[in-house]
Amino acid sequence: MEKPPADDVTISILAGGKSTRMGQDKAFVEFQGRTLLARSLDLARTLSPNVYIIGRKDKFAPFASVVEDELPDHGPLGGIHAALRASPTDLNLILAVDMPFVTRALLQHLVAQAQAAPEAVAVVPRWDEGWQPLCALYRRKFADAADAALRAERNRIDLLFDAASTRVIAKDELERAGFSSDVFRNMNTLKELQSQKRSD
């Protein structure tokens, strides 16, 4: 039996990217009959009533509550920073809009790991050598480190994953929990999207 949505978690969907490789706004690209944004919002709302889109209000306000970057043009870290600053909860799931294979079970797993590790400022999957910072959980105080980094023009998220305060969920642990690398696949180009459609 699935757990009902929990109001102690906020989910923020990063939809403010420039989508240069896609050639059009990723959020509104259709995949399996729904836009990537609609898929992300539907998933998020099964877990929490606190759902935000991180992006431009003039573009996304019809779909959900919108938070704009406090420090624009700093990439995904700027979006995470804005999300955490605006969040009403300590636990915050961050999800990129172009990751349509992320499951409710995976997001619940991240929440459970954060609840079991209250000292962790970030709970981040790592598959082989690759961090997955845009499908991860952050406590609100991660915004302080993000703020300092952004103001110093350091925009790489993984540089903020301190060993003492980051709960890393490695590949073997993810596999034991029943997850594969497919959940982290994203859609960066129309070619990738069309290839996936042909293989479905």
How would you characterize the largest beta sheet? 8 strands, mixed
| Secondary structure: helix percent | 25-40%
Q: Please tell me the total number of domains.
A: 1
What's the end-to-end separation, in Å? Answer: 28 Å
Quaternary status: single chain
Give the CA-based shape. Answer: globular
CATH topology: Spore Coat Polysaccharide Biosynthesis Protein SpsA, Chain A
CATH architecture: Alpha-Beta Complex
Q: What structural class results from the helix and strand content? A: alpha/beta
Task: Write out the CATH superfamily name.
Answer: Spore Coat Polysaccharide Biosynthesis Protein SpsA, Chain A
The top-level CATH class is Alpha Beta
H/E element order: EEEHEHEHEHEEEHEHH
How much of the residues is beta strand, in percent? 15-25%
Mean of residue pLDDT values: 90
**Rg, nearest Å:** 16 Å
Number of helices: 7
- According to DSSP, the number of beta strands is 10
For the structure shown, list the relevant keywords.
alpha/beta; Spore Coat Polysaccharide Biosynthesis Protein SpsA, Chain A; two-stranded antiparallel sheet; 10 strands
Write the layout of secondary structure elements.
Blueprint: E1 9-14, E2 30-31, E3 34-35, H1 36-45, E4 50-54, H2 57-60, E5 65-67, H3 75-86, E6 91-96, H4 104-116, E7 122-127, E8 130-131, E9 135-139, H5 142-151, E10 166-170, H6 171-176, H7 190-199
Parallel strand pairs: 1-4, 1-6, 4-5, 7-10
Antiparallel strand pairs: 2-3, 6-9, 7-8, 7-9
